[in-house]
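Progress report, Aim 2. The chain analyzed during this reporting quarter is listed below.
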Amino acid sequence: MFSKLFAKQGRNVVGLDIGTSSVKLVKLEKKAAGYALQALGIKELPPEAIVDEEIRDRDTLMFSIQNLVDQVDPKATEVAISLAGHGVITDKITIDKKSGAEAEQAILFEAEQRAPFDVEDVVLDSHIIKVNEETNKMDVLLVAARTEFLKNYLDLIFDLGLRPAVVDIDALAVLNAYEVNYEIDPNKITALVNIGFDVTNLVFIKDGVYHSTRDLSVGTRGIYDAVQKEFRLTQEMASKALK
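Predicted C-alpha cells for the chain:
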C-alpha cells in the first residue's frame, strides 16, 4: 500500500517533466557542491496530447519523449518524474506519535477520511514532517495517487524502455529543489510558486519545514488565450509571438 514516492537517488539523474504544453528532460550530475546541469531538452506538445493531466495522445507523447532522450542522453535507462492534477492529492495530518505498523494504520485511517476517492484505488505514501515531544503528536505529509492515473504514466515510461527511479509530486519536487539549493530560514514563512501551463502550484514553508500546498487552476495558458483573442491570431501564431 505504501509506495516510496519520495525515494532519493545518489547517482546521476535524468529528470523528465511531462507537462500539458511540453515535455522537458534534464541531465544532472552530482558534484561536491551540489548538482550541475549537463544537458537540457524541451519539446512542445500538441494541445490534445494531454488534457487535464490525462494522457490522450500516447503515441505523440512517446515520440516526443524518445526524441528528447536521444538528444539529451541516449544511454539513459532511468528517469525521475513527477505527477500533478486531479489524480494526486497532498495533505498534512496530525496524529498521535506512533511508529512502524501502528503509524501506517493511523495514516491509512486518516487517508480514508480525507481522500476524494476510495483508498483501495490509490497508492499512498507518507513522510513525518515534525514530532512534538511535548504534545506527543506528529505532523505527517500524506500523498495519494490514483492507481490508474499513476499506472498510465508508469506504463508509458516502461514502454519507452526506461525505468522510473523516482516518482514525485510537482509541488513537492519544487520544494525538494529549493531545499537542495537554498538555506531555509526557520524564522520566515516562504512561498514557492511553480507556474505551469494550466496549473500553478503553491508550496508554503513555515518554521523551516513544509506547511501546506495549494494548486490553482490558472497558468500561462491564460496569457496565450488573451494574446490570441486580442490580436485575432491562431494558437500557433500566438505561441510564436510570445517566444
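The radius of gyration is 19 Å. Residues 88-144 form a domain with the Dna Ligase; domain 1 fold (CATH 3.30.1490.300). These observations will guide the mutagenesis work planned for the next reporting period.
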